[in-house]
Every structure is written in structure tokens, then in C-alpha cells.
Amino acid sequence: MMLRSASAIARRVSVSNRTITRSLGAFIKDIVVPSSHEYLGQRAFSTAPQKGTEFIFSRLGDTSKITPLIAKLQQECWDGYVSTGRGCQTLFQLIDTDSSGTITWAEIRFFLENVRQSDINEDARKIVLEASHDHELRFAEFQAWLIKATRVDPGLKNTFASENYNKSLGKLHEVEGSTHSWNKHTMSQNLRRMQYAVRGEIVIRADALAAEGKKIIYTNIGNPHAVGQKPISYYRQVLSLCDLPAEYGVDNPAVMSSFPSDVVQRAIEMREAIGPSGTGAYTNSQGIAKFRADVAHFITERDEHISLPSNIFLTNGASAAIENVLTGLIGSNRDSVMIPIPQYPIYSAIISRLGARQVGYYLDEDNGWGITERELEERRTAAVERDGLEIRAFTLINPGNPTGQVMSREDLEIICKFCAKHDIVLLADEVYQKNIYDDNKEFFSAKKVAIETPGCENLQLVSFHSTSKGLIGECGRRGGYMELHNIDPYVQTQLYKLASSGLCSGVDGQMMTSLMVRPPLPGEESHTQFVREELEIFLSLKRRARSLVDGLNAIDGISSTKAEGAMYAFPKVEMPPKALQEAARHDQTPDNLYCMSLLEETGICVVPASGFGQKDGRVGFRTTFLPQEEELEKAITEFKRHHELFLQKYA
Ligand SMILES: Cc1ncc(COP(=O)(O)O)c(C=O)c1O
Fold first, then answer.
1. Which residues line the pocket of ligand 1, CB cutoff 6 A?
2. Disulfide engineering: 59 pairs with which of 2, 287, 309, 485, CB 3.0-4.6 Å?
3. Which ligand 1 atom lies nearest to the CA of residue 344?
4. Higher model confidence: residue 36 or residue 642?
5. Domains of the chain and any CATH numbers
6. pTM for the full model?
């Protein structure tokens, strides 16, 4: 009887992965009765085999004949574990094929043969393969091994701040074991595995050094005001009049002598848009209607194609928009998102937190970080046909972070056609659209290209913009928006529901977004000063983009592509063989070794390139060119001094 239902499951395997996940879930729930003693972490745990897999196997008869089914069950359960961090006990029971209550390395070896190799950390695999005797593992030992097995790839280790936190602070030993019920084993395993390089190990060490009084030049993050960029006066003036009680601000007789007339006028208008509750109250979940209309007007003018306020969501920076859209897109551990490699790591972070998979498409460094249709098709085919994944979305970042390229219209057409052809939702991250320093380059929005490219009429697209970048740099205000284009109205209502669960985005950010998309007009009193302030920032960024790249390229062994846009250079570094050996000896990525050495020697804090993804064998780092010009010049000299010392050290 049970055999029949088991083979029915096996039959369904070939029908669809989803079907098996669902039916297997029900199957396991029916027959694997979780023990009431199941406590994870430090507490007692009973593997009570008579209620677990023994029950399955006893019904299956001769286990040697059902090996393919056990293999399939292990793979499915492993997939579930990887994406949710749950099901550790069931996995243990499925590996314990003789239902002894303990497992052997031999049983784990059998398990390793059945599951996707790319999910298992190499070091954890080695432990199993190199175990000389067939030790019996109890559940707690298995849990500890599982943590190792799902620990991020050593190539990304330097980005995993929390796992290296103690070490970064100079504490050599991680405290093992916890008396808390909410611990390393019981917490969300997706969060445990999530990476975020931009605030990773190097930054934690930099903060520790800063706390000891060392001067640190932070070039790890695109946070302009933190490194000396002045806020643009117009924005701050309007914001302050929106926030101030009317009697101290817009209604005060002195206001006209303290503020330009158009600032006062704009503040009055914005206060009306916000309504009598003022800037301290929740707003509509999608954002204040008038501000969304400002955004829609801006997009219409920019693209020469209509944009509707109803399709705009104001969000807490682009980050919140990206997170909400990915939350709405990802439904299973087979869902995947194509992201550029190198990428801005918010994508990999959210994808892994949601338990989905990333499928990288490589940008071609030798070709200005361009893309080819062939690369996209090959990556998709491998993901779909070899790995059985479903591609839900495709991300482009234009201008690129960390790569700094401005995408050509042709590249955008390739992407739009590719997504339209395969029915993939395109996510266009365009937060650097104003940061273009190459006079021969122009920003084209993905929406404009999609609308104007034959065959892309039905392309589903979400575009993101932010008040954190451009010439504004008001990162802390958390302003931004997303525009939905060709998105199913039902999905749109669900995104509205999701936005509602967060009540609304910050009013500060909403106001900032309205100001970003509707700056003062020619003829208005603030206009001249506004244009001057913007231009000063722009020209300085342009100079810094060039001087940083030129400075890096002047160092023997370092080379960087031109920073056409955005705020970063992403150079590669030729590493002496001895440095590579040293990194391997310390179980570090070579770029982590390099960046840590740079930090300790010079106080310059950059991010190892491996945190963004790069081709195998490449070593490099990402640095912003945001420090003020004098500071940046010093940093360039220091890059050179450090590189020479590094070469001498590892000669
Ligand atoms: C490419 C890209 N997208 C999105 C963001 C998120 O920006 P924010 O959430 O501040 O709008 C950043 C921040 O650096 C970025 O570089």
C-alpha cells in the first residue's frame, strides 16, 4: 500500500518539481510524526526512529531496491532545508537509512551523492570524504556538520560579516554553543547564509580601528554625505519648511526674508499635498498621491512615453522596492533570478534570504562590462535545463554598480528582447541614472527601450530609482520609487497589500523623491543657485572618477576600466603567488587578504571584489571615488604605497 503511494510519488517526480515538493511534503507529514522531544540547539533531542524513516523503510521492503526513491527524497528534503533552513530532523532520518538513530559517514557519503553538489560547502564535503573511520554521528553532531555544509562558499567568506565578527574584533575564538533557544541552529538559516559585502568583515575591522583612534578613509559604500558632500540647499530649505510648524515657517512673517520665494511656495504646496496631519503621520501605503504624480510626470518627460501615478510606489529607498518586488516574485526554492556578475549585493542577499536561487550572467570586463545575447541564453539554458530552475526575474543595473559602465541602447535591447522572449520580469535598477561622466554616453531607461523595441510590447518591467545617489546623496532620508509597467493588476494589488503591511514609506523620503523629480525651474528664485550647486558636485565627481581610475592604472599590477558612471572603480589586482598561498593558508580569499592589508597599512576601507562576484581567478576590490578631492588624492598615493609594500612582502 505504502509502496504504491511511494511509487506514485516517484511518478510525479517526472511530472513537475512543484508537484513532488507538494506531494512529498504531504507524504512526509503523513508518515514522519515529529517527536515531541524535538528541540534544536543545546537541548535534548530524540530521534525516535520507530516513528520516523523506519516507518517509511519498513513499508518499502527491500531498501536496496528503493535507493533511487531514497535519493529523490533526500534531494527534495535537502532542497527544502537549503531554502527554508527547516527540516533538519527529517533530513537526519532520511540519511539514517537503517533507522539506527545515529548516522555514519558512509550514510552521509550516500547522501552527498544524491544532492546538488553546488549547495555543499567544500570544506564540509572534505570532512566526510576524508573521514578515516566510520564514526557514528548523533543528531547534534549532524546539525553542526550541516552548519558547515551550508556555510557560504569560501570565495564569499570575507563578505559574511557575522560569521567573522568575533575574529574581526580581534577575538580569536567564536563562542561555540548557546544556552539560548533562539540560536545558530534554530534561527532562520536563510538569514544565516545571507551575505552583504558592502558592510562585511573589512568594514567591521575598519570600525574597530576607528574606535581605537585610527583615521579611516571609508570608500566602501556610496554614501556621499558621510564623506563630505554638502547637501543641496534647495532640498533642505523646502524640507525644513515642510517640517516646521506653520507659525515658525510658512506662516511666519519673517519667512520671505529668510527663504527664496519659490522655496516657500513649494513648501506650501507640499504641505497641502501631505494634508493637515503633517509630516509626522502615516500616509497612503503607496505614497502621497501628489508626489506620485510628480514622479509620473518626470518619467513621462524623460522617456517621452506616458507614465501613470497609479503605477508608482514611493518606497524607503530603492532597497525596499527591490525587496518587495522580489518577495512578490519568489514562490519556491526552484525560483531564481538572473543577476549580473559582478552585482550590487542587495540582490544576492535578498534572493538567499527568500530561499531562492541566483543565476549569474557575466559582464564582460574586456568589453566595457558589456553583455551578449549568447551569454544570457547559455546561462538561462543551464539554469532551466540542467538545474531545473524557473527564472522569474532578470536584474540589470544601469549605470553599473560596482562596474561603473553605462549600458548602450543595444545592450538594453538585447536584455529586453531576451526577457520578453522567455517571459521573464525585468527589474531595472537605475539609481545612478544621473551619474554619467562620459560625454559620449547617454542614459536610456529600460522602459523607454522596451516600449520602442519591436517584440517587447508585453515585457513586464519594474524600474527603481533613489534619492540616495545622483547629485543628491541624501541616503539617510530613504527616498525612492518603483514604477510598474505591464504588471498584472492582481499582482499590483498584492504589492499594494505588501506595502500596506509596512504602513507607508517614510514621509521624509517621499518629500525628497518629489523634490528629486521636480527641482526648481528656470526663472524661479532658487534656480541659479540650485544649478550651480548641482554642477559643482557633478564636475567634481567627474574629475574624481577620472583621477581615481588614472591613479589606479598608474600602479604596476593594478588595472581598472573607466568609470563611465555611478560612484565606483572596480580594479583588478595581479597577486604575487606567495600572497595567493598566504591567503589559501588562512582560508581567506586573496582579495580579502589584500583589502585587509590595505586597511591596516593605510586606513583605506574598500570592499573585496569577491563580495560582488567575479570571474574565477580574478582578484580585485571596489572603491568609491566619493571622498573629497584632496582626500582622494592622498588615498591614490596611499594605494600605490601599499601596493609596493604588499609586493615586497610577498616577493
Ligand atoms: C545599484 C544599487 N541599487 C540600489 C541601491 C540602494 O539604494 P537606496 O536603498 O539607498 O535607495 C544601491 C545603493 O548603493 C545601489 O548601488
1. 222, 317-319, 344, 346, 397, 401, 429, 431, 466, 468, 475, 480
2. 2
3. 1
4. 642
5. 2-151 (no CATH), 197-222+533-649 (3.90.1150.10), 231-281 (1.10.287), 289-517 (3.40.640.10)
6. 0.76
